[in-house]
Every structure is written in structure tokens, then in C-alpha cells.
Design brief:
The chain has one domain (about 1-145). Helices cover about 55% and strands about 15% of the residues. The chain has helices spanning about 1-25, 60-75, 85-105, 125-145, and strands at about 30-35, 40-45, 110-120. The two termini are about 25 Å apart.
Length: about 150
């Protein structure tokens, strides 16, 4: 469990540091091209959930986050990096992402900093969003295809 706590703290730290660097160095709402037609930096503030869902509903998003953290806490009962690796990694990723965006929402007036923009999507995102996306995908793979019984 100590390794898991360290991983979650590392994920949250990476997320928060990259958001701080983006806010301190990128022009607000302007695209900074990195790879033509593929990737840009795009510092923006998101007051919604994923892809702006529930925009402006900060207290509802905070409520869902607290419920989600409670659910993830419950799911930790099956945590074991040695015997339940994919499941455990998925929970750690989801925790890291949820906590990272929760910190933003609590301390940035309900906003989350987004700064990564893949040109195939119409929205920007951050490392916490990446953790959540991969965590949910791994959790689904583990639950739907790898669980026996």
C-alpha cells in the first residue's frame, strides 16, 4: 500500500506542477503550436467536467468527486500490485487523476487548468485527465475481460 500511496502522490505532483508551469508560461486561450496539425499547448480554464460536461455546476462536480473518491476507496479493498496488478494500477491512475483535478477545483474557484491539445479533439485537457482516461480504460478491461467468476 505504501508503494501505491507514493504512486498516487507522484501522479498528483506531476499533474499540479505541469498545470503551474502552463499557467505561468503559456498565453491564456492562445494556441502554441508544437507539432503541426497534431499537438499544441493551449492554456485554458475549464469549469466543467470531462470535455466541459456540467460546465458551471461546481458544487455538483465536487459532490460527484467526493462520491467517486469514496467509491475508489472502497475498490482499494482488492488492491494488490503483486496479484491484482492491472486492477490496482487502474485504481491508482483514477485516484491520481481525480485528486489532481479536485485540487484545482477547490483552489481555483471551481476551475481546472487544461493545457494539452491534440488537434483531433475540439477540447484541451491535462495530465489528470489522461490518468483518468487510462485508469477507466484499464479498469474496464480488467473487469470485463480478465476477471474470473
Amino acid at each position: 500500500m505504501v508503494i501505491g500511496i507514493g504512486i498516487v502522490l507522484g501522479l498528483v505532483l506531476l499533474d499540479q506542477v505541469t498545470k503551474w508551469v502552463a499557467a505561468a508560461n503559456l498565453p491564456y486561450l492562445q494556441y502554441v503550436l508544437v507539432i503541426d496539425k497534431v499537438f499544441s499547448w493551449h492554456y485554458t480554464l475549464n469549469d466543467g467536467g470531462a470535455i466541459g460536461f456540467l460546465s458551471g455546476k461546481t458544487w455538483l462536480l465536487i459532490t460527484f468527486t467526493v462520491i467517486g473518491l469514496g467509491l475508489m476507496g472502497y475498490l482499494l479493498k482488492d488492491y494488490s500490485l503483486s496479484s491484482n496488478r492491472l486492477y490496482s494500477i487502474s485504481i491508482l491512475l483514477m485516484l491520481g487523476g481525480t485528486i489532481g483535478n479536485f485540487i484545482d477545483r477547490l483552489f481555483r474557484s471551481g476551475y481546472v487548468i487544461d493545457f494539452l491539445h491534440l488537434h483531433i479533439f475540439p477540447w484541451s485537457f491535462n495530465f489528470a485527465d489522461v490518468y483518468l482516461t487510462f485508469g477507466v480504460a484499464l479498469f474496464a478491461i480488467d473487469t470485463l475481460f480478465l476477471k474470473k467468476g
